[in-house]
Amino acid sequence: MNADDFVYGIHAVAEAFQAGKTIDRVILQRGIKGDQLQSLVRELKQQAVEIRQVPVEAINKITRKNHQGIVAYISPTPFYKLDEIIQGCYDLGKDPLVLVLDKITDVRNFGAICRSALAFGADAVVIPSQHAARIGSDAMKTSAGALHTLKVCKTSNLKADLLYLSHCGCKLVAATEKGHEISGEGVLSGPVALLMGSEETGISPEYLKMCNLMVRIPIGHGMSSLNVSVAAGIMLYEVCRQRTISQS
C-alpha cells in the first residue's frame, strides 16, 4: 500500500473531500465521538462514500500517526455515473458493453480485468461499494495504466444497476460454470452487460436469476475453472469477436 493512497485525521479527510478528491472508502474508529467528526461522516454518507467502522487496532495497522479515528482512501481515478455512460453510447449509435464485477476483491485480478476491459472495448466497469477491490496504486499498476482511461462506476446497489441495464436494452450475460457452453454466433452481440463473479463464491444467486443468458467457457484437461481475470479476458474477446462478425 502506498502512503499516497490514503489521508488520515479529521481535517485532512475533510480537506480532501471538499477539494473534490475521489474518496474510495473511509475507515472509522468504532465508537468514536465528536461533533466535527460526525458532521464529516454525515457529509460523506450523503455522497454514498462507503464507511467501515473498525476497532482502533485496525486503524493503527494502517498508520501509527495521529489519525484521530479516521482514515480515507483516495482513488487515483474518478468514478462515473452509469446512466450517463449508457446514454452517451446510445447517443453515438453504439451498443454499450458493460462489465459488472460481483465480489472481485483481489487487487491484482481487478487490475488485470480492467486491462482486458479496455483492450476489448468495454465502455465501463461496474463495481459494488462493498466487497470490491480497492482502487489504489497496486490496482493502477496491475492494470498497466488502463484505469487512467477506463471508466469505473461504483454502486451501492448492484441489483438496481442490473435492472437499469436491462431496462436500457442490455442483455445480461452471466459467465458461470452453471451455464451452457458459449455457442452460436450473435448471441453476445448487441448491447451487453457481462457479469463476472469471484472465484470463491461465483455470481450471487439473486443476480443469476436476473440474467438473460448464462454461459461458460469450454475447458478441458481436468481443469474445473479459470482464474477470473483470465475468464473475463476470454469472455470480453468473445463479445468483441461476435460484434465484429455481426457488423461485417
Please, could you describe this protein's structure?
By secondary structure, this protein is of the alpha/beta class. Helices cover 37% and strands 23% of the residues. The chain starts with 5 loop residues before the first strand and ends with a helix.
In short:
The protein is about 35% helix and about 25% strand. The chain has nine helices and ten strands.
Dominant shape: elongated
N- and C-termini, Cα separation = 46 Å
Structural class, please? alpha/beta
Q: How many H/I helices?
A: 9
Strand order of the largest sheet: 7-6-5-9-8-10
Query: Can you summarize the main beta sheet?
Result: 6 strands, parallel
The total strand number stands at 10
Question: Topology as H/E string?
Answer: EHEHEHEHEHEHEHEEHEH
Q: Helix amount, in percent?
A: 25-40%
State the low-pLDDT regions, or none: none
